[in-house]
Fold this sequence. Notes:
Number of strands of chain A: 6
Oligomer: homodimer
CATH class of chain A: Alpha Beta
Number of helices of chain A: 4
Distance between the termini of chain A: 56 Å
Strand content of chain A: 35-45%
Amino acid sequence: MTYYSMGVAQDQCAQQKALLTEFLETVWSNGDIEASDRFIAPSYTIHNDPGDPWHGQTLTLEAFKDRVHQSRAPFPDQRFDVQEMIAEPGKVAVSWRWGGTFTGDMAGFKADGRKIAMTGLTIYSFTDGKLSGHWQLCDRLGVFQQLSAGG
Amino acid sequence: MTYYSMGVAQDQCAQQKALLTEFLETVWSNGDIEASDRFIAPSYTIHNDPGDPWHGQTLTLEAFKDRVHQSRAPFPDQRFDVQEMIAEPGKVAVSWRWGGTFTGDMAGFKADGRKIAMTGLTIYSFTDGKLSGHWQLCDRLGVFQQLSAGG
C-alpha cells in the first residue's frame, strides 16, 4: 500500500463511520425507514445475527425496510448509542448500547411499558459506499431476562 | 496525521492482529494459560461482557489466568476460529466462531459430551503492545438452548 492509497483509505474509513452514524440515528433511532435508500445497498446480507428472524438471508432494499419496520414495532422509541467505531476500508465495527420502552406486543410477551436495555456489537460491510451486510451479536438473553422478570 | 505516522499506524495494526491471533490460539484454544504473560497487560478490564462472571471487573494478570482456567473447564477441547479482524491503533475488533465438547459440569447443567457451538464479537484494547481489556458479546442464549435441548 502506497502513502497515497493510505490517505485515500483513511478518508474512506472516515466516510464509512459518518454514514453508519447517520444511518443508526436516522433509520433505527428516529424510525425514518424510507431514508434507508440513502444508506442501504440494493443487496444486503445478514451473515450472522443469532435470534434475528432474517439471520442468514440476503435482503432487497424493500425487504430490509420491512425488517426495520417489524423489528422496531415492540420498542418504537428505541435508541442506539454508539460506544466505539473501528474502521478499515469496506468494514466498520461498532459497539453500541440500545434502549427502548416496551409498548408493542412481542412473541410470548405482552407490552407493559417497561424500559428495556441491551448491548451489542456489529461489523458492517460496505459496497460502493453503502451498507451491504452485517455480522452481529446482541445480548438477547439479557432482554429475555428483563422481559421475564416483570412478566 | 502525517504520511510517516500513517505507516507506523499500519505496522502497529498488523502487530496487534498478529498478537491477538496468537493469544486466542495459544491461551484459549490450546489452554496454555501461563503463556498469558506474553499477551496480557498487568491490568485488564472487562468493560462489557454480559453473562461473564467477571463483567465490569479489572483483573490482575493472576486473576486473568484464573478466569481463563475457570471458563475453559466445562469445554477443555474448545477452539476459537477467527472470522475477521478490523484494527486501528490501540484496538482490534474480531468476529469469531467457538466450539467445544461439554465434558465438565457447569452451573445447572451436567456434562454430557455433546458438541456445543457459539458465535461472538469482541473489541480488544491494547496498552504498550499487550491486551488490556475487552468489550464483548457472545450468543449465550444459543448455548443455553443447545444445553437445554438435550437435558
